[in-house]
Amino acid sequence: MNDDVLASLRRAVEASPEDAALRLHVAEMLLAAGRHTETIGEVNAVLQREPAHPAALELLGRTVAALTSASGTAASGTGSAEPVESDPAVEPEPVEPDPAVEPEPVEPDPAVEPADPAAAAFDWTRAESEVGSDVPPPFLPEPQLAAGEGGEGVAPLEPEAPAVTLKDVGGLDAVKKRLNESFMQPMKNAELAKAFGKSLRGGLLLYGPPGCGKTFLARAVAGELGAVFMSVTMTDILDPYHGVTEKNMKAVFDSARAHSPTVLFLDEVDAIGMKRSGLGHHAMIRQMVNQLLIEMDSMAGNNDGLYLLAATNHPWDLDEALLRPGRLDRTLLVTPPDFEARRTILEYHLRDRPLAGIDLAGIASRTEMFSGADLAHICVTAAEKAMTESIQANRICPITMTHINAALDEIGPSTLAWLESSRNVVKFSNEHGRYNDLAEYLRQRSML
Ligand SMILES: Nc1ncnc2c1ncn2[C@@H]1O[C@H](COP(=O)(O)OP(=O)(O)O)[C@@H](O)[C@H]1O
Ligand SMILES: [Mg+2]
C-alpha cells in the first residue's frame, strides 16, 4: 500500500469526518494491508454515526472473518468451509458455545506438566480467580518494620473536574430531591442556611446496596457545584508505620483544601469506621478515625470550599463517633435504580453497539431491583452472545432482544440480599431515625 496515498486520504477524512464513503475507502485500504485493528476503528467511526450503514457492516463482517482466519481460531465460517447460515427471520436459539470458537480451558500437556495427577485434575488458577472475589482481602497489611524508616505517604490525589451533573443521573427523583434539600441547597446558600440554623459543617453519608450509583452521585454532586472531585478509598490511607496514617489523612484534607472548591469523597468508609467491638480497636484504624474526626471538626461549613461526601454499603458498621452532629450527620439512601434510572443506564451501556429491535422500556420494566452494575452486566453478556453468533455466522449479528432475554435468564438482581439483610437494622437500630428513608423504601415494597 502506498503510505503517501493513505496519509493524504486520512487527512481528507480528518477534514470531513462525516464522509462515510471516504472513510470506508480508507478502511478498505487498511484491510487490504492486513491492518485489521485500524480497519475496525474506521468502520466503527462510520457505524457510530449510522449504526445500520450496510457497506460498513459488510466491511466489518469481512474484517472479523479476516481476523478469525488470521488468528488461527477460525470458526466454521471461515476459509473454504461453508458459512453457517442464520435466517434473520427466525429467532436464533440461545447460542451454544462453539468449541471451535470458545477457547477451552487449557488442558495441561502431560508431556510438559509434571506427572502429578492431583495437579492435573485441579485448575488452581481458575479456582483462585473464582474464589478471589468472595474472599475478603486481608484487612490490614502486615507491618514491615524496616528499622527507623517512615512510610512514603499516600500517592497524591488526582483532582478531577467531573463532566457529569445530576442531569446525567437517570431517575431517582426522590434521592435527588433529598440530596438537594439536605446538602446542595444549604451549601449553595450558606448565609440563608445559617439564618435557618442549618448546620453547614460535616458531610453527607451515602449508603445503599452496592452498584447503585453512590460513587456516580458523588461525582455528579461535584459537577453540580462546579467543584473539583477527589476520591479516596480509606484503605489506601492506612499505613503500618507509626503516625503515617494520620499524616496521610491530613495530607488528603490539605490537598482537597488547596484545590477548593472540592468535593472530597471518602469511598468505602466502612473499611475504617468499624465499631469498637469489631476490628475498630486496632491501633492503626483508631488513629485514622481520630484524625478523620479532627479534620471533620475543623471544617467550617463551606467557608473553605470543602464539601465532604462519604459512601458505604454498611452504615451500621460505622463507629458512632463518625456520625455525630457536625460530622457525617446526614445520611442518604441511594436506592436501587427506578424505571427511569434503569432506562438511562441501559441506554448508556448499549450506546455504540450494533443493535436491532431493542425495547429499552421493556427491559427496564423487567429489571426491577437490578443494580446499575447488574444492568451493565446484562448489556455486556448480551453483547458477548451477539459476538459469538457473529463469529459463527461470519457476519455482524446485532444485539437483539433474544440476546438480552438470554442474558436476563442468567443474571438476577443483586440488591435483594442487601435489602433483606438491612431489615433487622431498620427494625431494631433506627432509634435516631437515621434509616427512615430505608424504612420507607422497604415498607413501599412490603419488605418491612
Ligand atoms: N441513576 C443512575 N443513572 C445513571 N447511571 C447510574 C445510575 N445509578 C447507577 N449508575 C451506574 O451504575 C454503575 C454503578 O454505580 P456506582 O456509582 O459505581 O455504584 P456504587 O458506588 O453505589 O457501588 C455505574 O456505572 C454508574 O454510572
Ligand atoms: Mg462505589
Write structural notes for this entry.
With 448 residues, the protein is α/β, with parallel strands linked by helices. Among the domains are: 3-71, Serine Threonine Protein Phosphatase 5, Tetratricopeptide repeat (Alpha Horseshoe), CATH 1.25.40; 166-333, Rossmann fold; 339-412, Helicase, Ruva Protein, domain 3 (Orthogonal Bundle), CATH 1.10.8. It contains 18 helices and 5 strands. The chain has helices spanning 3-15, 20-32, 36-49, 54-70, 117-121, 124-132, 173-188, 190-195, 214-225, 234-237, 244-258, 283-297, 339-350, 360-365, 372-393, 401-410, 415-428, 436-444, and strands at residues 203-207, 228-233, 262-267, 306-312, 330-333. It has a 5-stranded parallel β-sheet, sandwiched between helices. Helix 2 (20-32) runs antiparallel to helix 3 (36-49), helix 11 (244-258) packs parallel to helix 12 and helix 13 packs parallel to helix 15 (372-393). The termini are far apart. Mean pLDDT is 78; it is low at 72-122 and 130-152. Adenosine-5'-diphosphate binds next to helix 9, helix 13 and helix 15.
